[in-house]
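Annual report, structural modelling task.

Input specification for the flavin-adenine dinucleotide complex:
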Amino acid sequence: MDKYDIVIIGAATSGAYFARKTAKRGFKVKVIEKLSPETLGTRMDIFHVTRTDINTFEMPDVHEGDPAWAFEFTENHFSSPSNKYNFFMKAETVGLHMHEYVALMVKYAQEAGAEFEYGAAFKEFIFENGHIAGIRYETQDGLKEVRADVVVDCSGSGAVARRALPNGYGIENFTLADDDMFYVLLRYAKFDEKQINTFWLHAKSWYAPFSMNENEKIIGTGAVGSFNNAERTAAKLDAVVNQGNFELVRTEKGTTPFRRPPYSLVADNFIVAGDAACLTKPDCGEGVTSSMVMLDIAADVLEAALRQGRADKKALWDINVRYNKKQGADFSLVRAFLTKLIATVSDDELEYCFANGIIFNEKFLGDMKASPADALQSLKGILSGITGKQVSLKTVSAALAGVSLALMLRTHYINFPKDPVKLPAWSAVADRLWKKVGKLSED
Ligand SMILES: Cc1cc2nc3c(=O)[nH]c(=O)nc-3n(C[C@H](O)[C@H](O)[C@H](O)COP(=O)(O)OP(=O)(O)OC[C@H]3O[C@@H](n4cnc5c(N)ncnc54)[C@H](O)[C@@H]3O)c2cc1C
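The model returned the following structure:
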């Protein structure tokens, strides 16, 4: 039977990225992918990444004319529920065709020495002395086995390997519930006139390009719970911003995790990453490069462990510590605050904030250069909103509770235990905090 240092399940953005990073370090890497090269990455057409991220993660750099390149833009507006007030942020952003781009990422990984097998679907783990020693997978030629020091689950939100682990193996094996996911409806639309790229927080909806033609936009809407919820929210947005005045080119649907990640991302001879680990950004559900933040850490820690002939939980633990100190802590803060805020704030209250430049303005959310004087100005606005009954005390106290929970969670994640033995006590506190945060609902 073949023996590898690393076997990765899933050859999309997370799997292909990690395969390249680890193969470049000289490890023997195999990726199994249930789809074929022709269908890999066809789950959706367009996704976005910033030019900064392309450079930071040394992703394939594509430009106009390359098959994977779709468009570029720099301005993203934020609009009030009535669409009357808005401000914008700037970031050089590239729209990419997922299928073509993943093919490029696979090519780079193959050039680094990683092997890919398509039409190969994870079936079960092989355990030896209670530890993972490899996997069995289905192919059209029947069941095959492969041995590895480490198995990495990059299988997307289905998390086929993480969920197959027995209770008590050291990693949470939960399945995403309906309210753990954003159901995303993407309507590719042609308008008679130029439209600007916009995000509407109250409707969790946005206009984003799908070509360089400014009359063509994807109308995206996300909602927890179901696609029906997303459709209802999309209709609410249409009624205010476009009255249905566009030609629908096509529709895409997909889900993206909106849930805290498992407390540990590692177990003995096992790592989970990407959507399988719910590493998506809490403010927008994007997950391609947020997964890479974790995978870069994982590549460093795994290399050090394997060079010592180890891949046990303790040797991999620093992945948790280092990830949670950075992105894990920041995402917990944003997730907690947004969950509390969105659950309470009304459209009228948001409108009042936009109209009066309270928090929803370019200084706070645009260039992030709000001064103490700006903060005081926003506070004054909130207080006069309470007096004038444009903002309810209930919302202000929920927002304050959100801020306080968000800060507590951030600190808790920064202090993630360095010793795996301390995880249960740390998790008990985290559980209590997340319970207070609650979950989003569309009611
Ligand atoms: C509509 C929509 C729009 C989005 N837009 C953006 C965006 O603009 N920017 C952004 O950064 N993110 C975006 N996201 C999120 C982003 O798509 C995901 O976070 C990212 O693609 C996750 O990558 P992944 O490799 O972890 O998982 P996936 O892309 O889900 O890949 C998992 C791979 O594992 C394979 N697999 C599954 N089961 C098995 C098995 N049993 N055996 C072997 N292989 C298996 C699958 O076939 C697949 O190839 C969007 C999501 C949605 C739904």
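The longest helix spans residues 318-344.
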